[in-house]
Amino acid sequence: MKLDRITSNPNRMNGQPCIRNLRLTVRRLIELLATYPNREEIHQEFPEIEDEDIRQALIFASSYLDDRIVELPANYETVA
């Protein structure tokens, strides 16, 4: 899969992965997705962000996560 909207330039944002050479990092976009209840609010606050930017940012971020089993202690409580 080609992530053509994710760019990295050592002279911009300390080389962090950004969205289309904007001064918006992938990390910040993921944070916005977690903070705003729906995407429409993101588009209102940041009209330069497109749905494809969001899709590729999620794919990029998920590529850094391993599929592994994490053993939790027996007394671990979950919040449902």
Task: Summarize it.
The chain has 80 residues and is mostly helical. It has helices spanning 26-35, 39-45, 51-62; strands at residues 6-7, 18-19.
Which properties best describe this structure?
single chain; 80 residues; mainly alpha; two-stranded antiparallel sheet; 3 helices; 2 strands; 36% helix
Q: Can you list the strand order of the major beta sheet?
A: 1-2
> Any low-confidence stretches, pLDDT <50, length ≥5?
none
Radius of gyration: 16 Å
Using the alpha-carbon principal axes, give the shape.
globular
Helical segment count: 3
- The residue-averaged pLDDT reads 91
Fraction of helical residues: 25-40%
Strand content: 5-15%
**What is the terminal separation in angstroms?**
35 Å
Largest sheet geometry? 2 strands, antiparallel
Order of helices and strands: EEHHH
Walk me through this protein's architecture.
- This protein is mainly alpha-helical.
- It has 3 helices and 2 strands.
- The chain has helices at residues 26-35, 39-45, 51-62, and strands at residues 6-7, 18-19.
- It has a two-stranded antiparallel ribbon.
- Helix 1 (26-35) packs across helix 3.
- The radius of gyration is 16 Å and the shape is globular.
- The termini are far apart.
